[in-house]
Model the fold of this input.
Amino acid sequence: MTRSEHDVLVIGGGAAGLTLALELAGHRHVTLLRPAGDDIGASRWAQGGIAAVLDPRDAVDDHVRDTLIAGDGLCDERAVRFTVTHSTAAIEWLVAMGVPFTPDTSPQAPYPFHLTREGGHGTRRIIHAADATGRALVQTLLARVTDDPRIRLLDDRQALELVADDRGACRGALCLTAEGGHELLVARDVVLATGGASGLFRHTTSPTPTCGEGMAMAARLGATLANLEFQQFHPTCLYDPEGEAFLISEAVRGEGGRLRDIHGRAFMADYDARAELAPRDIVARAIHAEMQRTRATHVLLDITHLPAERIAHHFPTILAHCRARGLDITREPIPVVPAAHYSCGGIATDLDGASDVPHLYAIGEVACTGLHGANRMASNSLLECLVFARATAAALRRTDDTARREPLVPSWQDTSPMPDQQADKGLMALREIMSEAAGIVRSDAGLAAGSAAVAALEETYAPLRQDRPPSVAATRLQQALSLAALMLEAARQRRESRGLHFNRDCPAHLPGPARPSRSRLIRRP
Done:
């Protein structure tokens, strides 16, 4: 095993990781671990945009109120206000970085860039780069990072697990090198920006979803995880059993798209007065109910009533992608189905991004800041990445721990890793279990059965991993099994339905103020 020394180690190169690296460069020595061609993170797939208070007619209090409503009583209002208050500055920073947001050239435009509206928002406040905001954002920031000599970019290593010293403080990460060897990256501070856990489910909105690896790594060090039961399912993923996942942005509904059942009947008004602009949990459950009622595999998202030139202007990526699959969305509705999209829970952090493990920080979807509560409002996710990455960078600028304690180095007896084919088979089985047990609509019996099935999988695969050197596939399976067990337990313990967590056996809110859940990994001897 080789070893290298680092100051601040950032694991993950999406919007959050790139932003933090750029903001911290010049103050601390930054190492950014981002494997070459790493599109695993969700940032680049974000289509809709970034919510922020930009229109002079908008207000911080209005954005805060909309977020609190969407979060169904579980948001941390302090975190919400902190995020929204810093939203304008975050967008101004992106504009200065050169992100090519779509301009608004109309004479009556209240703001230089076009603002759209999405579910849960009371006004237009979503700034975007056509319908590929995430891609434009990541490409712009990655180019800046690549050109910055103050940032050390490592693209030939994959983080497997975090390491701690004898006092439980995080001191780096064990990585797999491109040559198949193991390297210990020792660091004064570690920042996780590894994304969420949508990859625990069968259908997701990302072609290469994460499985909560960062959450599981932090939990193994003793970090508290919060609100794991609140897994968001995006209402509209393109339904194509033969093709890869592709998200149909919520902005399509924001610009007038209508949801219809397979017989062409618009149905959202039956479920909520806000119709297509209701929060995502309501829309996803409505679609689920309509699919069950009509015994269909999908519903339809119809924008054929909009002018074709307007569709081409606002949604060029969606238009081109659907055409490549033989679907002209200007003439026919889009078949859509809900799919796992965003984890509202994660590593519990404060407003500086700090976890309860010393020297371990978390930003982006891997973290639970309190912003989203029981349901993330559309386009608040990229905003959270930006605001908390900048806040964490500021906190790290104020601290420089010169005292360094040696990490405890993992060891193994066997020299051959678990075969990747076996690990991949186990992960596929886990995804089927989680989709059945912890999907859009849950039940006591289903959650109990899911917990038992995950425990059985763990018992089956544990001997195949024991005392073997870790591989990417085997480590991912181990982390996914651990996190799935915690997620199911959190769902079983919440004896109410709230936001994204709907249990048909306890469909109402509990009386009194809502309380976040807390999860800790119990280490087995």
Summary: The first helix runs from residue 15 to 24. The CA atoms of residues 207 and 297 lie 20 Å apart. The mean pLDDT is 92. The two ends are 26 Å apart (CA to CA).
